[in-house]
Specification:
It is a single chain. With about 400 residues, the protein is mostly beta strands. It has a single domain (about 1-390), classed as Beta Barrel (Porin). Helix content is about 10%, strand content about 45%. The protein has helices spanning about 1-20, 60-65, 80-85, 295-300, 310-315, and strands at about 30, 35-40, 95-105, 115-125, 130-140, 140-145, 150-155, 160-170, 175-185, 190-195, 195, 200-220, 220-235, 250-260, 265-280, 315-325, 330-340, 345-355, 360-370, 380-390. A hairpin with a 2-residue loop joins β12 and β13. The longest helix is centred in the N-terminal third of the chain and has 19 residues, at about 1-20. The radius of gyration is 22 Å and the shape is globular.
Length: about 400
């Protein structure tokens, strides 16, 4: 366990060096023929986009966790707060609450590292809804050491996000939503990295989202086609030191669609796909840090990759999933997540089940890696509990 704690400390030190110290990293040279950054041997190397407080992009609920992390356009529930708050105006319940527990780095035997997520909403009337959520990320208890390996105390790194949202129907088929959030990140307050005092980071951010639904016919079956769009975590930069250099939080653009097919009174199926892109500067070959606001960075992020449009397309990551419901009480889910090997290389399959009885519901999901890139959720079971306190309309 001691070695595992030291491993986690190295991870924290790396994050702090990223945010507090201008890391001297060579990104290689851009090769216009291969449309990528190459090393001294001419081989393409990763040019991954990094940010502070990456816990904000961890999918927090087990339903979407079983759908390859897709959730922008699937039917609304309390966990819409993470993906697309605009969906809440079309929720079928008047009041719903969800609680999710996600073990983190379970394969390393760490039992005190986890993500907890509590979210809910209230319908104000048939046109309006408000949502709220609390995300808490615990990194366990760490034995800190200085650059020479000497003990320098211990601590309990932790991060959290508090969010509130308002959603309103803009028509029979369209709704919009806005969210505001406060972000707190205490990784190693009171410690030093590279001679720099570490402090707690704070940030404020907002989400803007829209949701559209329409009835369609798939053969003889009544179906529904939905679209969701969200720009999330657009806000202030953060710093873990007194340095004037600040880092971006993980602003993201997401576009998703879902097709719900009702075969009969008891059987239905949903097919969904999400496409996401971080609205952050792409590292360049000169290691020059982008100096601008979050808005400017979000706009520039569509055109700043050294490899041009080819590299910009590599920065898209995809989530797709399928969900089958029987009698609206039992669900089976599967999904797949893909990220380009030069942009993070996260690739995995997901599976899960859902149960609903009366006002109670439970979702389980399990992640199966499909490449050699280790994922903190490898072979991990996570679960969500949902409580519907009103009868279905």
């Amino acid at each position: 366990m001691k070695n595992k704690k030291h491993f986690l400390f190295l991870v924290l030190a790396g994050l702090l060096c990223l945010s507090s110290v201008q890391a001297q990293i060579s990104y290689g040279t851009y090769d216009p023929t291969k449309k990528c950054v190459v090393d001294a041997n001419g081989e393409c190397i990763p040019n991954t986009i990094l940010s502070a407080v990456p816990f904000l992009r961890i999918v927090p609920d087990a339903r979407s966790g079983a759908l390859g992390d897709a959730g922008l356009a699937i039917s609304p529930d309390a966990n819409a707060m993470h993906f697309n708050a605009a969906k809440l105006a079309f929720a079928e319940q008047d009041f719903e609450v969800s609680a999710t527990y996600t073990p983190w780095l379970k394969n390393l035997g760490l039992n005190d590292v986890y993500l907890a997520y509590l979210s809910g909403y209230n319908k104000l009337d048939d046109l309006q809804a408000v949502g709220y959520s609390l995300r808490f990320f615990s990194l366990g208890e760490i034995d800190f050491r200085d650059e020479d390996g000497n003990p320098s105390g211990n601590g309990k790194p932790r991060e959290f996000e508090i969010s509130g949202a308002y959603s309103r129907k803009l028509g029979d088929r369209l709704s919009g939503g806005v969210s505001a959030k406060y972000i707190y990140s205490n990784l190693a307050s009171g410690q030093q990295v590279g001679g720099i005092d570490i402090k707690t980071a704070h940030a404020f951010a907002a989400d803007i989202s829209v949701y559209h639904k329409s009835k369609v016919k798939m053969g003889n079956y009544d179906s529904q086609l939905t679209f969701g769009l969200s720009v999330s975590n657009l806000g202030s930069k953060v710093s873990y030191s007194e340095s004037v250099d600040k880092d971006f939080i993980p602003a993201n653009f997401g576009l998703g669609s879902a097709l719900d097919i009702n075969f009969d009174e008891y059987n239905s199926m949903t097919f969904t796909i999400d496409i996401n892109k971080l609205l952050l500067p792409t590292p360049d070959t000169t290691n020059v840090k982008f100096d601008g606001s979050s808005i400017n960075a979000a706009i520039a992020s569509w055109l700043d990759a050294p490899g041009g449009i080819t590299e910009e397309l590599r920065e898209l990551y995809f989530s797709t999933g399928v969900e089958y419901w029987y009698d609206k009480q039992f669900a089976v889910r599967a999904g797949y997540f893909y990220e380009n090997p030069l942009k993070g290389d996260r690739q995995f399959l997901t599976v899960g089940v859902g149960l609903k009885y009366n006002v109670y519901g439970m979702n389980l999901s399990y992640l199966v890696p499909t490449n050699n890139r280790r994922n903190p959720l490898d072979n991990t079971l996570r679960f969500s509990l949902l409580f519907d306190f009103t009868s279905q309309k």
